[in-house]
Amino acid sequence: MVDGNVKSGRHGVAGRASWGVADQAVSSLTNFGLGLMVARSVTPKAFGAFGIAFASYALVVNIGNGMISEPFLVRFSNAAIEDWRRAAAAASGAAISVGLVAGAACLAFGLSSYGALAQSLLALALTLPGLVLQDTWRSLFFATRRGGMSFANDLLWAVTLGVALAVVIGTGHATVFWLVLAWGGSANVAAAFGALQARTWPNPLRSLQWCREQRDLAVRFVGELLTLSGGQFLAIYTIGAIAGLVVVGGIRGAEMLLGPIYVMNFGVRAMAVPEAAASLRRSAAVMQRRLIILAGILTTAALVIGTVASMLPDRVGVALLGKSWEGARPAILPMALWMAATGASISGRVGLRALAAASRSLRARLYTAPLIVVGAAAGAAIGGTRAAALGMALGMVPDVVSTWWQLHLAVKEHLASTPGPVADDLVQVRSPVVTTEEDRT
After folding, report:
1. What is d(CA 413, CA 344) in angstroms, rounded to the nearest whole number?
2. Does the pLDDT value for residue 98 go beyond 80?
3. Is the pLDDT of residue 274 over 80?
4. Which of 177, 246, 336, 411 would be 119's cystine partner, CB 3.0–4.6 Å?
5. Diameter of the chain by CA atoms?
6. 427: exposed, middle or buried (Cβ count in 10 Å: 0-12, 13-18, 19+)
7. The pTM is what?
8. Which segment of 13-22, 163-172, 206-215, 270-279 scores lowest on mean pLDDT?
């Protein structure tokens, strides 16, 4: 007979996973809806400029994750509420500071550009502080396993964005500037609501204090995330420089059509670190087994969804992306391969986060960025959209191998620092939760 604690434990994990997936679903649908509006309202070249702005946003958010969200998840998961609020005030304040600095950089690049690219970067610059803060609230809520609050925040963003887009399009202002501004502005509304949910106001004056206190993890996490997101960012810019903004728009269109994969990959990641840390307290073997299963699920799902998306009839693709469908279609399968590799890598990286193995997490990605950029550049020069996307995907594959190898080494170090395998086994025996047949195998 299964112990009641096992049932409640399983239901708790399933519930938290459901919130993670539901939250990411809302977030992805928000971005998907925005992408559809932009693709159908502007030219393929302007849609490529939007792709550049979105890649810039992703880069800045990843920097924020490395400096703020990831250290918070490692150190304040399951913290007492008062400790959480004190840390959240500093972390959210640091998020605003990151957005201000990055916004100034985007403003400078936007002023030095022209046309649709300048419009998209200027609109992004005006709204980046709130965009970074909104994303940070999501991680902070998941650190205390309150995924429902993150879901509510993203739902508000989605509703506000829908109203803003209706106003922009209804008043005849459907340019890339106003569409991006509507997206970022609605995120700022959700960011302000996040402070009300948390009952904690961001304190930017504590940004430097946060950075000093978290620098041992933050430096490595930022370096690690920059090696990948920086590589993606440079790859997109390189593709735009070699093959033009239309090719960039095609890759962005393919990413949009593969949105369900993002829902799984990053929805699971939001709640996986606290769960992996809990599994680690029971046994490193239990954690590894669950991460392997997670990697298999994410990888298989990415390939299946990518195959289905590649078979969409042209009339459906045109209905979704307008003139940008023609450029997006050849990039679908290569980008599905990219996301499959990303899912496998995320699963291993969750284990490294649970072990607080920041240095090994950084080492795992040292060579990823150059390979992504070189692959994308070679593909863009040789064969356009499909080859550029395939080059990016192939550059991601070594990251998977490196991540899991570093996880293997980190687990060995963890076991060596404990009394030994016998002690690890005792942890499993004594835990009232580990009583199922699955955990005994």
Report:
1. 22
2. yes
3. no
4. 177
5. 70
6. middle
7. 0.69
8. 13-22
Per-residue pLDDT tens over the stretch 116-163: 889 999 999 999 999 999 999 988 887 776 668 888 999 999 999 999
Both tokens assigned to 151: 């879901």
Residue 271: pLDDT above 70? Answer: no
d(CA 370, CA 395): 8
Sequence-ordered list of residues with C-beta below 8 angstroms from that of 380, at least 6 positions apart, any chain: 238, 239, 242, 243, 247, 387, 388, 391
Which range of 135-144, 160-169, 227-236, 425-434 scores highest in mean pLDDT? It is: 160-169
Sign of the C-alpha dihedral computed for residues 210, 128, 233 and 330 taken in this order: positive
Residue of 226 and 8 predicted with greater confidence: 226
Whole-angstrom distance, CA of residue 333 vs CA of residue 393: 10
Q: How far apart are CA 174 and CA 259, in angstroms?
A: 23
Is-contact 392 228, C-beta < 8 A? Answer: no
Q: Which of 152, 100, 164 is nearest to 130 (CA)?
A: 100
Q: Which residues contact 336 (CB under 8 A, 6 or more apart)?
A: 258, 261, 302, 303, 305, 306, 307, 309, 310
| Choice among 110-114, 376-380, 432-436 with the minimum mean pLDDT | 432-436
Three-class SS string for the chain?
CCCHHHHHHHHHHHHHHHHHHHHHHHHHHHHHHHHHHHHHHCCHHHHHHHHHHHHHHHHHHHHHHHHHHHHHHHHHCCCCHHHHHHHHHHHHHHHHHHHHHHHHHHHHHHHHCCHHHHHHHHHHHHHHHHHHHHHHHHHHHHHCCCHHHHHHHHHHHHHHHHHHHHHHHHCCCCCHHHHHHHHHHHHHHHHHHHHHHHCCCCCHHHHHHHHHHHHHHHHHHHHHHHHHHHHHHHHHHHHHHHHCHHHHHHHHHHHHHCHHHHHHHHHHHHHHHHHHHHHHHHCHHHHHHHHHHHHHHHHHHHHHHHHHHHCCCHHHHHHHHHHHHHHHHHHHHHHHHHHHHHHHHHHHHHHHHHCCCHHHHHHCCCCHHHHHHHHHHHHHHHHHHHHHHHHHHHHHHHHHHHHHHHHHHHHHHHHHCCCCHHHHHHHHHHCCCCCCHHHHC
Tokens coding 43 = 């030219």
> How far apart are the C-alpha atoms of 200 and 178, rounded to whole Å?
31
